[in-house]
Amino acid sequence: MKKLMVALVTPFTRDNKVDYKSMDRILHRLLKEGCDGFIVCGTTAETPTLSHNEKLSILRHVIKRVKHRAEIWYGCGSNDTAATILACREAQKEAIDGVLIVTPYYSKPNAAGLYAHYDAVASAVDTNIMLYNVPSRTGVELTYETVHALIEKHRNITALKQACSNLDMVRRLKQQHPNFLIYSGEDGFFDEGLDAGMDGLISVMGHVCMKELRIFCDDERVDNRMRRRLYELASLTFTEASPAPVKYMLHLQDECENILRLPLVAVSEAAENRIQEYFTKNRHRLKD
Known about the structure:
alpha/beta, TIM Barrel, 8-stranded parallel β-barrel, 12 helices, 8 strands
């Protein structure tokens, strides 16, 4: 069975504080719908706008609410290796399954620099590490050769979140390291990623379609209509800067306020209209 995890949003109140009541509503529903895990304080959580204390408070709150019913991975990556190590050491004291470490952004290290970054982190901490390859946002891309070398050296590098269309790399890694877990981190490639051998999906759109994703991953009789609906939703989820679209979707479900922290803002009226049209057309499926 494929694993389905959600890159969790951070709901905010109207006075721009973390909204834990809304977070509880979202967590409770997703657990009921079969969500296997949560990425806490990843980029979908608007982490650049969260303080250090807010991040730890969110992590501890999610741990307390989830109660070991699902995996919890904590976002620790940055473009400062020393700071990443400190964050990982702090996080591994908590009841988590591992840390998610994005490739260093803006700095654009070469392959040697990427290897050295992850090598230093994995050597300094004991917890499981999930590499996060998202070149469209960071400007650098992990290659097969780099990931292969890291897996060979470090037993605690156990997973990869692959948020790009390089599926040949996925096939090669799974062939060489069948126990190494690879998750699709790109909602727009979920079908192709699973066909390439990925072990599951770390989703943003999963906030509002977990039931359908569960059916899609577990039932071989999925029809093309469901596939088209999911692709349409994936497109809408990233029609503007994430997580603005999915926050508006959750707002339509009365689960959180439609509020983001600057520099992100709520979706445009045009995007609202497209999302409302989709929800009206598919409301019975989303609520079943």
